Amino acid sequence: MRIMGKISGVRVRRGAVLSVAGLVAAPALVLSTGTAAQAASCTAAKGPYQKQVEKWLKRTADGRQSVADCKAIRSFQADKGITPAAGYAGPVTWRTMKTITAQKAAGKNPNAAKKCPTNKGRIACVDLTRQLSWIQDGSKLKFGPVPVRTGRNGDETRTGSKKIYWRNIDHWSTLYDVSMPYAQFFDGGQAFHSVTKSMYNNPGSAGCVNMRPADAKSYWNLLKNGDDVYVYGRKPGT
């Protein structure tokens, strides 16, 4: 049985990535941050979400871009896999910060709103809006919640009730010619699987639910063929 899964970041349209990344190409000036290489990658222009980003980073929220602001923003972008990491407070950076805030707020009660069914026994829930996934048994949380990386705009992870129908611990995608460890397919070529990139790397996967390696391994150990999967919400930016 040949399943051709999708994996993030393999077939990315260059133009789309740059346009979504946050109006970064517009500013021509750069801030000097110590070396020519650093200066070349740091924008002097303030972004449309300058104050919000500064406040989130616990900096003085004056709405003015400084060398220190740029370095702090760029460090956050590099850590979260946001490209280009140029220190510009654009929409992707601010959207990522809001997503992280929502994920932290979920705590150990991610299904407080009862949007994921509690009458199916063991089920893997995927909340696209908060980019979170967890496993519950009835109303009891069994694992998670953990951050995930779902489908980008145009290749969205499909919503609704699913079931895991095929698993391959060492799957190789013939469609994208890449490895998909701990792959558990639940909707055509869409599957839970491990990736090594950040869960916040823009613009997203090609439809699969990407997971950190340790989380994907835990899902592998906790789920089996026939287990329910429920996907709901809408990924920010899609």
UniProtKB/TrEMBL annotation:
Transferase in keyword set: yes
Keywords linked to the UniProt accession: Cell shape, Cell wall biogenesis/degradation, Peptidoglycan synthesis, Signal, Transferase
Annotated EC: 2.-.-.-
Keyword Cell inner membrane: no
Pathway membership, UniProt: Cell wall biogenesis; peptidoglycan biosynthesis
One Gene Ontology MF term: transferase activity
Domain L,D-TPase catalytic: 121-232
Pfam families given in the database record: YkuD
Classification via InterPro entries: LD-transpeptidase (IPR050979), LD_TPept_cat_dom (IPR005490), Transpep_catalytic_dom (IPR038063)
Active site: 193, 208
Top-rank taxon: Bacteria
Protein name in UniProt: L,D-transpeptidase
Species for this entry: Streptomyces glycanivorans
